[in-house]
From TrEMBL, chains A, B:
Similarity section: Belongs to the isocitrate and isopropylmalate dehydrogenases family.
Species annotation: Peribacillus butanolivorans
EC numbers for this chain: 1.1.1.83
Protein name in the entry: D-malate dehydrogenase (decarboxylating)
Name of the top EC class for this enzyme: oxidoreductase
UniProt cross-references to NCBIfam families, sorted A to Z: PRK08194.1, TTC
Enzymatic reactions: (R)-malate + NAD(+) = pyruvate + CO2 + NADH
Keywords in alphabetical order: Manganese, Metal-binding, NAD, Oxidoreductase
Residues in Isopropylmalate dehydrogenase-like domain copies: 4-348
Matching PANTHER family: D-MALATE DEHYDROGENASE [DECARBOXYLATING]
UniProt xrefs under InterPro entries: ICDH/IPMDH (IPR050501), IsoCit/isopropylmalate_DH_CS (IPR019818), IsoPropMal-DH-like_dom (IPR024084), TTC_DH (IPR011829)
SUPFAM superfamilies referenced in this protein's UniProt entry, alphabetically: Isocitrate/Isopropylmalate dehydrogenase-like (SSF53659)
PROSITE patterns reported in the protein's UniProt record: IDH_IMDH (PS00470)
Amino acid sequence: KHFSIAIIPGDGIGPEVVNEGLKVLKVLEEVHSDVRFVYDFYDWNCEYYLKHGRMMPTNGLNLLEDYDTILFGAVGAPTVPDHVSVWELILPIRRHFQQYVNLRPVKLLKGLESPLRYKSHDDLDFVVIRENTEGEYSNIGGRLHEGTPYETAIQNNVFTRYGSERILKYAYSVAESRPKKRLTVATKSNAINHTMPFWDEIVKEIGNEHPQIDVQLYHIDALAAYFISKPESFDVVAGSNLFGDILTDLGAAIVGGLGLAPSGNINPERKYPSMFEPIHGSAPDIAGKGIANPIAQIWSISLMMDHLRLPELGKLVLSAIEEVLFDGTVRTPDLGGTANTMEMGDAIVSKIREM
Amino acid sequence: KHFSIAIIPGDGIGPEVVNEGLKVLKVLEEVHSDVRFVYDFYDWNCEYYLKHGRMMPTNGLNLLEDYDTILFGAVGAPTVPDHVSVWELILPIRRHFQQYVNLRPVKLLKGLESPLRYKSHDDLDFVVIRENTEGEYSNIGGRLHEGTPYETAIQNNVFTRYGSERILKYAYSVAESRPKKRLTVATKSNAINHTMPFWDEIVKEIGNEHPQIDVQLYHIDALAAYFISKPESFDVVAGSNLFGDILTDLGAAIVGGLGLAPSGNINPERKYPSMFEPIHGSAPDIAGKGIANPIAQIWSISLMMDHLRLPELGKLVLSAIEEVLFDGTVRTPDLGGTANTMEMGDAIVSKIREM
Ligand SMILES: CC(C)[C@H](C(=O)O)[C@@H](O)C(=O)O
Ligand SMILES: CC(C)[C@H](C(=O)O)[C@@H](O)C(=O)O
């Protein structure tokens, strides 16, 4: 079987960690002789922007359309305002391809210690389902009375029934597929009194079709605190675009840091390609030093394999990451070690070959 | 000196913890014979709403106007939708009285352990300055196509130059008053691309007037993660209404929980009364059991004393709380003990008397 992958390394540490991802794709072909990955590279990033005045060509989205999947590094550089680079590259891809599910596991891997004193591996194993196409990231808004003391900026949160239903149905269905049958949903309907009560209503409506699911709505402030005090109570956590964003960085922090955390931007209908990327950004402060942790990128490839219906390969990649971390000899600086990005990637590749 | 205080116990555990606060006010009069607190009670809560169809009388805000300060418990009960109780009581008070600063210390008290494995008392001592009158809590929005598949809810984030400047100026001035001279500001200008870039601009503009301050803008997702990984790097943290809300519950979690965390809703110009309240809510699940931790409420009284320009009393109250926690014999269940609300309050009162 052939799978086509569009590779977008992006900025900063993006290309460095994507390189390690490519090594993993190659070794997967070795161990699974039926599978071939065919890929093309797209150099769309802030450098491209400085040359062409845009983050991707006008037909960029068309170019991506026919791939089976997309592997993304990270976007953003000090030379281009963040909202430009993000709104012209990563967010249009998520939206155009209806990647409305952002799937982000929060799992403490073997060999790692949580920064939370009393929490162990059993306590830290859940998944966050984040809405990925609307909500607080609306792009709708503007300014009035610019340059005067009365200047005002307004931005809309836009929650549609269409968008909220599809992500919440997905979240319930993931909860159904797991033994605990528990769904925790982020809200802030006490203070954000138009969009969030609407969201809560839809949570309850869809809940009526899932009487077996134990569903709980928590305000985002309290929920963030519960990530610290009772992460063991979570199984599936669902949130809007912004709330899911915040919760998943927090989730990464409680299981060892942003260097590890992967994500899948998924179009569940498989009408369009899904995209896999680390949660972390382009980290300009450590770019070029070769010390970035490639695990988030490599774990994203594990999620990609699951999505491509190659679950044995997904499992293999994740197990290899865990084994290497458990050995403990090869670790990047963010995990307290001295290995560089390539050494970390090579160790995982060797482990896959051995397994 | 006489100080007039409006007392609003509110719902759930609100009245229980406010009672302990009143004991503390009384003992402060004993130890400081020049000071007298005169107070009136207002029974505005969800019960009041069920009787009168509103959370407070139409002239409620006028009634509060002439007090020196307001002591608030907590609002919210299962019988009234949260957005009603909140938008008719606590939020109108914050807005009408221009309490645009929500001041929330994040400090690990002596005798307590942080849930963060490697963080000690020196690592956990900063203050969050939250915008408290506008932003994401706009109350502006509505719904379209109700009851159809095309239903859409919209809510505006409204950031004014007026509102953003005054809170950020305040934050810079607090940073100026502290030895570290460091200000960390929450943003999300990469994705929320109208209001947040405006906020960032104002951060930088005011920064130009404070060249001594080391200012850092972090996206809220990364900042939430840094609360776990490097809380020791913070001195003053500023955020919008929503971001400050999330960060302060998270802040409470890393220093021992919501039972401890106090807040001041402050009108710095002292044109209107300021209001002091715990960060926690009305906690219907434990209401009536007498087991709520009154420390957040009592610490709020410490902040109230600071605001009333009685810093020796503010310090006394906080020291007494710390001493009792350090003794360790009297602790409420949230801190692993078996003391009830009154015993915890009494222990602090006795300590104040001894000191
Ligand atoms: C009750 C609620 C509206 C409130 C807020 O979000 O401001 C609370 O969470 C707080 O932090 O004081
Ligand atoms: C780069 C940024 C817009 C993005 C987001 O907020 O979605 C990132 O933080 C993420 O979580 O993937």
